[in-house]
Amino acid sequence: MSAVMMDGKALAAKVKEGVRNQVEAFRSRPGLAVVLVGDDPASRVYVNGKKKDCAECGIYSEEYHLPQEATQAQLLELVRTLNEREEMDGILVQLPLPAHLDEREVLLAIRPDKDVDCFHPFNVGQLMIGEQSFQPCTPAGVMRMLEEYGIDPAGKHCVVVGRSNIVGKPQAMLMLQKNATVTICHTRTRNLKEMCLQADILVAAAGRAGLITADMVKEGAVVVDVAMNRNEAGKLCGDVDPAAAQRASYMTPVPGGVGPMTRAMLMENTLTAARLHGKQ
After folding, report:
1. Which one of 10, 43, 134, 270 is CB 3.0 to 4.6 Å from 90, fit for a cystine?
2. Domain limits for position 255
């Protein structure tokens, strides 16, 4: 067996085309404000990519770049200003922030109806009870990929390896909403191999290169590798050994799998925010 590789780039392009087609019918364009603090090279790459996505989707975007030494008060004042600007439907503060800034306070300051990353406790609570307007971008991208490839989680055992607030926990909630039976594991799980071997759908999101070896994957399982790591040679890789493709039925590549879908789902969330604000 050799797994079907799930093409995140192609699907992301399809999603963004759908967003663009919908935006073209709007009376006023959706708007996204992207806030970057400092000069972290990886964050700059991510911000540039999001601005490019906005341009492709017909979404108006503005970047706000604060210096590394920006104070908490300065950042909070910027967020409050963006909260009041009607043309800005979504606000995205690029993480991680410099160490001297309080990330939680900043995320709490974003209006929930503009929280297109779905990090605000209100939106997390809505996700928990299944009444969300927004879905966290990476987990939502995973669900869209499964749908595209005709993989129905209902009745299947999904094992999520990773417990972050950004991916692991919300991924479990979205799987539950699709009637999967869900187990959450992590790097401290004692019988991790045994748990992974039970998975019909295995989502790896622990952020540790090589954590999931091929012998931890059940024959015919669907393997979704969310992580973006660098191996000893400096090459991008996920949590799953690529050799697992010989046992899996479907598998996501790294890069080119979940990553592009994360950005595409941000565009969908911005579209949703615009609709919440009456732009349609």
Report:
1. 270
2. 136-259
